[in-house]
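Following the same procedure, sequence and fold were stored together, as reproduced here:

>
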Amino acid sequence: AKHIAATLKQDEFKAERAAMLAKTDLMTDMVFEFPDLQGLMGYHYALNDGEDEAVSLAQYEQYMPRFAGDELPQSEPGIAVAIADRLDTLTGLFAINQPPTGSKDPFALRRAALGVLRIIVERELNLDLKDLIKVAVTNHGDLPASAEAEAKVLDFMLERFRAWYEGEGIAVEVFLSVLAVKPTQPLEFDKRVKAVNHFRTLNEAEALAAANKRVSNILSKQGVSDSQTVSQELLQDPAEKALAAAVAAKQTSLAPLFEQGDYKAILEQLADLRSNVDSFFDDVMVMADDEAVKNNRLALLSQLRNLFLGVADISALS
């Protein structure tokens, strides 16, 4: 919780204090007799003891959201503890080989994961799951499956977005296109999904998705690396020269939009490449007899694909 507060430039002491007190009301006779009062009694006990208002409120807010559609924590310590508590549970149970199996989820880990995602996205927090999970796993010491827990918890949590977007009526291929590039910041993930969902409504989307799939297949078969550069001297056909010029122009013009994370605007601008891409595939033989010319064309296709991969793998839409 202290790490989360520090990352968000919030009061670390209040987050740490709220976390330290977080489960103390479970030991009281009141909560033992009436379990539904957990958190609420913690809030009143903390206030009664002279704790800070936000620290006290966090005792109640740590359980938010309790169910789908429930309200989220408002206070800064409440947000920190609510996220930390769920990540502690997720990493701990994965680290002792107790993940959900099939329809069985006795420790409500799916709900815990979705709670973390909702808090981060809806409260617009710049938090990275990879970083948070690493800290949470470290806090558990030496558990039998802790070495694999980081990667497994990250995959498990990102997969929870699938149900979220299905509930919002967003097609599963839109989710899969973003999952393919695996952004680990939930806020980023959500922005990309919204951008791809908008991109699907554009006239150019279908043709560009198909072209991306074709490019992806060609590059994977040829084992092309991302580091190859395009040589202007080896460009022969007018269509490939036009595409190379268009890709180079986009690399420059889109750089500030990538900095700002304006993925919707990026995809709208990339849609302009459709005519160049169509002409390239109509007029140019990628697998030329001349090895240097062939490799140059593959490098050009790799640059084209990387522009789209900066947002999502839109070949998944095809």
